[in-house]
Amino acid sequence: MQGFLSIGDFAKLRNVNPKSLRYYERIGALIPAYIDPETGYRYYALEQLVEMDMILMCLELDIPLRNAEQYRQSDQTLDIRRLLEDGQQKAHEKLAHLRNTMQQMEEALRRIEENKRYQEQEGVYRRHLRQRLILRQPFTPSGGELAFKQSSTEIFLRGQSLGLLPAFTFPIGLIAQRQGDRTDTDIFLEVLQQEDGITNLDVLPEGNYLCQQRPAQALEHVDALITEYFVQHPEANQVIITNLTSAFFDLKGPLLELQQPI
């Protein structure tokens, strides 16, 4: 029809499938400018590209199309300003999420590269570790692996509620501190950034550590692992137990690294 575009031609202008246009029509997001009463063919006005762009923006920003009607006034006029303002806000949120994801991936790759030389290292070895920012809470080692997994979930959720960003590499660990005849143990979540107003975080300082490895199965008897370590190292007052990030994921779990600050 003169002055209108067929559904195929209109779809080509924004590289969408004509079936998608039929779907948009069914949900009321984009109604053809004219429907031939005899053939049922759909036709669109060139000006409707603005509406098409609105739909594509909603899809890009994860705004449900069924909510697109909120940007139309009672006379079906499209409120472009409001759409763009909401779209801008959504875009900022997505950019922030992408920045966080990039930071997580960069840190994970750094750890993989740094740990590569220590994979399956036998005996005690010395290494230099960067400062680590952690969220910690008390942990009872006698509960074994089940208690460790439950506490891991709990501290992850706590960190999430505080807006903290952990690494991709399951940065959960334990800190056992010997105080005379008593040993206190905390579980910790290592985080990559600190949000404003968060003050209940601790720091594992940068420095040299004496390290050794244990299989992941050692977490089945956490209390025995900690007791054994202090018996074998009577000079130690603290041991940190964390995973040794590697380039490959083993279903048996990552190796554990026991780190004693020196």
Count the strands?
A: 11
Q: Could you name the ranges where pLDDT drops below 50 across 5 or more consecutive residues?
A: none
Strand content: 15-25%
Cα shape = elongated
Q: Give me the number of helical elements.
A: 6
Distance between the termini: 83 Å
The overall pLDDT average reads: 88
Order of helices and strands: EHHEEHHEEHEEEEHEE
The Cα radius of gyration reads 29 Å
Helix content: 25-40%
Q: How is this structure best described in words?
A:
It contains six helices and eleven strands. With 262 residues, it is an alpha+beta fold. The strands form two sheets. It has an eight-stranded antiparallel beta sheet with strand order 4-9-11-10-6-7-5-8, with helices on one face. A three-stranded antiparallel beta sheet has the order 1-3-2, covered by helices on one side. The N and C termini lie far apart (83 Å). The model has no long low-confidence stretch (mean pLDDT 88).
